[in-house]
Amino acid sequence: MSTPSEPAESESTYVIDAENAAEMARLMNQALFLTKRMGGLFPERSDLANIHDVLDIACGPGGWVLDVARSYPSVQVIGIDISQIMVAYARALAATDQLTNARFRLMNALNSLDFPDHSFDLVNARLVAPFMPSAAWPALMQECQRILRPGGVIRLTEAEAAITNSPAFEKIIELGTGALKLAGQSFSPDGRHIGITPILGRFLRDAGYTHIQRVAYAIDSSAGTEANKEFCQDYMVAFKLVQPFLIKMGVMTQGEIDRLYQQIMTGMQLHDFCSILFLLTVWGEKPR
After folding, report:
1. Under a CB-based contact definition with an 8 Å cutoff, are residues 140 and 41 in contact?
2. What domain count does the chain have?
């Protein structure tokens, strides 16, 4: 099934420009934020004794891969991403830190993965929904099973849109999830949500994984909380970078976005701003 994937040949389906330096910086900060708020790199498992080779799908600028490589020197970690700027940056960081157990490759996760059968003990995919067409998930699950060793683990972490008490914030979320529905990148029947978290377990069951388990996280990022500043910075950049996608999908004009963006920025600074972000990690094993 494998076909050469470096350089990546297909156009990116990511809702933000994957070659944007601001998005690269945002993803580096987001990786640190999520790992900290979720309780670590592998919060659902305490023992990595049987984990030797790890793949991170859509690794972005490599934050999670580099942290795993630093924390577990005996583990070989590979990150793949479609973005040339992200992969180049991740490679530079790995070289600077002399992390010889961290490698990065240009590869499109929507194509066949350019790895031999039974290459990995664990495949990680965190927040890949922003580039995944709904119809593409089953093929990716099968590809992950192909490259996993018997007894290997697939680990998926996804989030729904944050819930807040800000009318402007909720409005842009409504428009964003509606745009994803129009783009074929949503599992919500009416476009009110992303709808990815309820489906993760089904993906694994349908692909034949066993011992499926899950753990949920609720990150309170309201005003006055420790997570608030990081949360607001993340969404401040994300809402700016996603604007071309919203315009392309015809859900807003630039003028409407500009006015709404200013309202969002003001609302997030209020002392009574409340927000919570829900994430779900689901994992399962390839049958032995």
Report:
1. no
2. 1
